[in-house]
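Each letter names a residue; structure tokens follow underneath. Both lines appear below:
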Amino acid sequence: ASFAPAVFANPKTGSSGKSKSRVIMASHSQIVDSSEQIDEKLVRATLDEALIALTDTVSIQDAWAHLFPQLQSTDVIGIKVNSVNHRLPSHPQVVYAIAQSLAESLEMNPNNIIIWDRMTADLKEAKYTPNMTDKGVRCFGTVAKIGHDRSFTVDVGEGKQMHLSKILTEMCTYLINVPVLKNHPVAGVTLSLKNHYGSIDSPGSCHPGGCDPYIANLNNTPQIKNKTKLIVCDALFGTYKVGEMRPPEWINRQILASTDPVALDYSGMMLIDKKRHEKNLPLVSERTPHIRTAAALGLGTNDPQRM
């Protein structure tokens, strides 16, 4: 097996002429120091460089304009984070850097940015600052004040009916997905696709069968598929061994960016597999059916030759 992560830059098209999905893996040796402290300035610089490379533009302003070409002054951009494990969340240093870069570059009202997850309590424990005021970047969870949208149901397969967060269905025009680099005992990995288990009302019932086909079907719903314009994976730290609720198991010092959730999850899976290979552990790629199902649904590519 090859453990070189899938990446990358030019050309955008392969020999067949088909467009390729671009996955940027940006890193800096000092973005996390020897005492495991995150350098916020380096996070912002690395993030901006990643988005410029992703969009093949020359400035961060052009990069954001490329990602949100139809943005109106009244539009709201939601940033879906992962805060269920407060010891290894989408780090606030990364997420607030995204919000700051976005607001500054597009001259947005910061109040039109919502950092959100399933529970406000989880966000608070992960060191976010809850904010439901009309000033600054907003930050809150679906539970308990906002709730899930009962006006329609999402069929995720096997007769399971889910309801999406009202933050997603009613409050956000667009979405940025910010997962964390983590393995998972059931799904193999929990990256951008599985991050939307925090967007539904009954995620616990969607774990049988390696979470397949539930994860893929959930991401295929228009409210997620059509609103998502960017995925930024916080891969500063990661887990590869025991599972997603553990403290960090290694310092990786990377930020991943893509507009293709399947390609990004494949690339993150390869990073985890590389680490597991070094430690003589079975590969997670042997038990990630949801990534294959998502590719089959047309949500992106899991073929490294098309990245």
User: Anything to note?
Assistant: The CA atoms of residues 197 and 203 lie 5 Å apart. The chain has nine helices and eleven strands.
